[in-house]
Specification:
Structural class: alpha/beta
Largest sheet: 5 strands, mixed
Number of domains: 1
Low-confidence stretches: 1-41
CATH architecture: 3-Layer(aba) Sandwich
Helix content: 25-40%
Strand content: 15-25%
CATH topology: Glutaredoxin
Amino acid sequence: MTKKNAKLWLCAASALVFTFAGADRLLADGGGSRHGAMKAPDGAKVGEKAPDFTLKDTDGKEHSLSDYTAQGKIVVLEWFNSGCPFIQMHHQKESTLADLYKDFSAKDVVFLAINSTNSEHPDFGKDAQAKKDWNIEYPILEDTDGKVGHAYGAKTTPHMFVIGKDGKLVYSGALDNDPRNTKSGSEKVNYVRSALDDLEAGKPVATAETKPYGCGVKY
C-alpha cells in the first residue's frame, strides 16, 4: 500500500468512527440516554414530594404544580424541545402523547410540557408554533432559567414524570421502551400509560423508574 493510499484509508476509517459515534449519541439503546445528555443533578426522587413550581405557558398563563395537586389531580410532566427528533416523532409522526392526553385528561390527569432549552429563551415562538402545528392540547411551559429542569433532574426530551394526587413523584423515566420506534404489539410498553393505569386502579406503580432516552436537555 502506498503512503498516499494508506493516508486515504486512515481518513475514511476515522470518518466512519465519528459517524457511528454520532448515531450512538442520537439514539438510546434500550432506554438509555446518549444524545448529548449533559450531567444534571439527581433531582426529584420517586416516592418523595415532587418539587413545586410556577411557570408561564406560551400564552402567558401561569401554572403551579401545587394548584393542581391541591385539586387532587394527577400530573404528567413532559420535558419538551420542538427541535428534538424524538419529540417530533411522538408529536408529529406518531400520536403517542395526544393519545395519552385523550385517554386520561377526563380522569383528573393534567398534562404539562416543559421547555428548559436555554438557546430558545427568551423567544418562545417555536413552542407556540409547534403547539399549533402539532395540535398539542395541553400547555407548553417555559423554564427560562432551567431551575425546574434541574430540580427534577430532567436529562432528555422527552423525560417523563408522573405525580400522584398526593403530590409525590410516582414515575420518572422514558415515555416507552421503544426509542427507535421499531417495536409493535405486546413488545411495546408505554411506561407512562402503565403508570396512569396503575394509579387509576388504586395500585402502586409497578414500573416506577426507567432510563430516559432522547435529546439532551441543553440548559
